[in-house]
Amino acid sequence: MMRRVIMAAMAVLLSGCSESGPKLLPIHGTVTNNGKPVEGASVIFTPDPSNALGQPATDVSGPDGNYKLMTNNRAGVAAGKYRVAVIKVPPPPESTNESFTSDPFMAQLSVSGPDAKKKNNPASATLEDSFEREVTAQDPVMDFDIKSKSTSASAATAAEKK
Questions:
Q1: DSSP code of 18?
Q2: What is the number of alpha carbons within 13 Å of residue 19 lying toward its C-beta?
Q3: Which residue of 56, 57, 61, 102 has the fewest C-beta atoms within 10 A of its own C-beta?
Q4: What is the DSSP string of 34-63?
């Protein structure tokens, strides 16, 4: 029994893993909304259960919408299948209840007064999309054009789930 455990551990080490983990591929790209760069969008790669060496990889898009994935403070992501989520939550409105300043979703729901009209403004909408992607050495660039989801629609969906 112990011999099998040792053999399995050696197989993992010989399959491309080193002390710091599996070989990572440099994946980068641009997040856009209708062709315009999106700053501050979270890009999250979650490994598919079939991806034994995969670990979550993330980044936040910069002013030009560019991102570069990181896994455990290392640049890149292991090859394999992933579920990708790209989410951009607008900043809280100025009239936000102070108890919701650390929760952008609740901040948008709590808007009242002049900022209430901004709730239906596309610039104040949550942008989000999710899909499956396979990471390979042949395709290091992954660009994502995400769609708007209004905060009132998100609130309705959240209310339906309760």
A1: B
A2: 0
A3: 102
A4: TTEE-TT-EEEEEE-TT-TT---EEEE--T
Give CA–CA dist 8/35, Å, rounded.
Answer: 48
Give the H or E element holding residue 7: helix 2-14
Residues 6+ apart with CB under 8 A from 161: none
Token representation of residue 58: 């993330």
pLDDT tens for the chain, 162 residues: list them: 434 434 444 444 444 444 467 899 999 999 999 899 999 999 999 999 999 889 999 999 999 999 999 999 999 999 999 999 999 877 666 665 666 666 666 665 665 544 444 444 445 567 888 889 999 999 899 999 988 765 434 333 333 333
Query: Which of these, 125, 60, 62, 142, lies nearest to 89 by C-alpha position?
Result: 125
How big is the chain, counted in residues?
162
Which amino acid is it at 104? P
What b/e string do you get for 74-97 counting C-beta neighbours within 10 Å, with b at 16 or more?
eebbbbbebebbbbbbbebbeebe
Residue with tokens 């890149």: 76
